[in-house]
Fold this protein.
Amino acid sequence: MNAPEFFAEHYPNKNISKELQKLAEQQQVAWEAESVHPQLSPSTVNADELVCRPLTSPTHFDLGSGIVKPTAFDDAANKGLSVDRLSLNGLHHILGKADARARQYNASGDKPETREVIGHIEFCVSEVRSVFVKLESSEDPSRRGLGIYDTALEGEPEHADICQIAPNAQGGRSARSQVFTLAKSKFVRRR
């Protein structure tokens, strides 16, 4: 099975990270060098690229305290944390898409809160790929915690997903904690 076949089978179920965690680390890492939808994507995600994650309030950001919530990165543990590749579409376009999603959510009926894009975080792909975790119960005491995959979508060639690839809860918490610490220092509040 290759990356396009794997993602075609598992991506729609919104549990892609959980399925990736069942694979050997070598396979998880090798698939970062494949496009999930080669017909939709101009290239795989390169280590020197910047990716962007728009953050919404109140889902990802606490307006009262003015801080990014750790839950902003929970999607990495299951369905994949959506990010956009800045080299393929600029920040203005990416934030515009996020604004449209927030407007759509707000207009879709009785919701407990309204959402607003409050800012964004930019990561270098190499920073995400350098997250390593220690696994006490494993033969290998240190391994990659996160992968980032080219998951281009129809009309969104810039789409990618950060997935937790560490295979257990301990490794997953460590990986998400590391990316959260990194994100706090890179958050840019919208004016």
